[in-house]
Amino acid sequence: MNWGDLTLAAIAVGAISLFLRWRFPAVPPVIASAGLGASICVAICSRFQMPPSLIASLTLNAALLVAGIDFIFRRNLEKEPSTPASGQSDFETTNRRRSLIVNGRKLIAEFHRQSDHEKFVSFLATQDVWQEIRPYFDQEKCRELENPNMFVVTNGEIRDGKIYYFRSELDRLEKEWGLKD
Predict the structure, then answer these.
(1) Least buried of 10, 76, 112, 158, by fewest C-beta within 10 Å?
(2) In whole angstroms, what is the distance from residue 92 CA to residue 90 CA?
(3) Per residue in 90-101, pLDDT tens?
(4) What is the pTM of this model?
């Protein structure tokens, strides 16, 4: 077995995993992390010229470990805080929520003004506001929004039908948080 080829293959798998994580937001990040962890493990093992069966075993374990760690951290990050942060008054919480709704609506307008992204999903992936408001959205709606294979028919001047989903979730949050007049 040529160890240099194995190292190049590991680098290729790592590059593909990073590309998937960057370009396709609907691909579960856990899968991309597992691929990256496996590629790093293969690269390290190949440098020490370990037997192929040991490399396969260590690679599988590394992929599962990295995927598990990624899953646990993401699950903890996506939980909605049930109570305001310590020291935060109801007024501050209301203002923060109102700011999230306003900034979410600005995203829609900004998407229509820009020309870099044709799809709303790729545009959202580049926005910090989306990362802030995403934990409050219904998880099923998030999956639908981030699914690159789903297409929503539009009516009128709307460039991407997924904006309807995004807008309906903003309306739901606004009503749920008692911000709608």
Answers:
(1) 76
(2) 5
(3) 878 888 999 999
(4) 0.50
Tokens found for residue 63 = 């992929």
CA 106, distance to chain mean position in Å, is: 20
Is the pLDDT higher at 4 or at 46? Answer: 46
Give yes or no for a contact between 145 and 162, defined as CB atoms under 8 angstroms apart.
Answer: yes
Structure-block tokens of residue 41 = 């493990």
For residue 68, which amino acid is it? G
Other beta carbons less than 10 A from residue 68's beta carbon: 14
> What is the C-alpha to C-alpha distance for residues 132 and 134, in angstroms, rounded to an integer?
6
Higher pLDDT, 141 or 25: 141
Q: To 10 degrees, the CA torsion angle through 88, 89, 90, 91?
A: -110
- Helix, strand, coil % over all residues of the chain, rounded to 5: 70, 0, 30
- 163/152 Cα distance (integer angstroms): 9
- From the list 7, 88, 75, 17, the residue with the least C-alpha distance to 47 is 7
